[in-house]
Amino acid sequence: MNLIIPEKYDPVLSLRQTQEAIKYIRDTFQKEFGRALMLERISAPLFVQKSSGLNDNLNGVEKPVSFQISCFENDDIEVVHSLAKWKRMALKKYGFGVREGLYTNMNAIRKDEEVDNLHSYYVDQWDWERVIEKEDRNITTLKNHVKKIFKVIKHMEHEVWYKYPHVVNRLPDRVHFITAQELENQYPDLAAKERENKICKEFGCVFVMQIGNVLQSGQKHDGRAPDYDDWKLNGDLLFWYEPLQCALEISSMGIRVDENSLVEQLKKENCEDRLNLPYHQAIVNKELPYTIGGGIGQSRLCMLLLNRAHIGEVQASIWPQEMIDECEKNNIHLL
């Protein structure tokens, strides 16, 4: 059982007060976030057809929860891992123009997750996507969007402090940018997660860029599906999280593949067969807009702002009984 118990942990808020705080954070953040990035809220699916190629393949080894429906006899229906690809199709379908975008409340099941303080079988996040010009597919555009998201999170720190001054987490004032290769060069003897912990403890908030390609060591910093993020133009937003003494990933985001980087990355991963799927064909044929997008963890944001020790304190999921019992003994009350 992977479980960290902070010393003398005190959640401060009762279960009902916590529920009130969760609603306040979620309602306030999505309103401010949508305004900052000019995003409209839309409805999104819980499941998609396997043959569409729209599901997120994550690291390539996780298996989606799937089932069959009578009217789709020759096709499996998959519960989404995320909406990374679906959003780009939706932007075209709904007629969004350049500098316009959407966000949605995404709920997913990741049955292969190893549950611990930060990971759950249930995933809840704000999935967002925004149309950009082809010439805006660059690092400057990526960094500008990261800074906007960071600014909204900082604003939420002040909002939560005003309502719950005795629990709010104090966040750093700026985000530090570094590539995965630069991070490996800086800490060559550490594993990827250890590097993240080291750099986050130093700067407080870090955006690690260019994740997916093999580094000079012959290893990847982390796995990424080859068919949505451009691995040269993506990254993870991490905060140093004092209660657990580790880096806490709040968002994974990036500029999406174009017709060239899609083919290049599929070749690297020996996944060229996906080029026959409708979504991938639409990218190759330049039928979809160029976009930037990502996901922001809803429960993780609540954890960060409320100084909680376990993600189960801010979301309802299922946990091993051993974990439930150990948490309860240490004043960690899982929902």
From TrEMBL:
GO terms for biological process: L-asparagine biosynthetic process. Pathway: Amino-acid biosynthesis; L-asparagine biosynthesis; L-asparagine from L-aspartate (ammonia route): step 1/1. It is an enzyme of class 6 (ligase). Residues 23-320 form the Aminoacyl-transfer RNA synthetases class-II family profile domain. Signal peptide: none annotated. InterPro entries: aa-tRNA-synth_II (IPR006195), aa-tRNA-synth_II/BPL/LPL (IPR045864), AsnA (IPR004618). The lineage of its organism: Bacteria, Bacillati, Bacillota, Erysipelotrichia, Erysipelotrichales. This is Aspartate--ammonia ligase. Pfam families: AsnA. GO terms for cellular component: cytosol. CDD domains: AsnA (cd00645). PROSITE patterns: AA_TRNA_LIGASE_II. It comes from the Bacteria. Belongs to the class-II aminoacyl-tRNA synthetase family. AsnA subfamily. The keyword Cytoplasm applies. GO terms for molecular function: aspartate-ammonia ligase activity; ATP binding; catalytic activity, acting on a protein; transferase activity. Keywords: Amino-acid biosynthesis, Asparagine biosynthesis, ATP-binding, Cytoplasm, Ligase, Nucleotide-binding. It comes from Faecalibacillus intestinalis. It is found in: Cytoplasm. Its EC number is 6.3.1.1. It catalyses: L-aspartate + NH4(+) + ATP = L-asparagine + AMP + diphosphate + H(+).
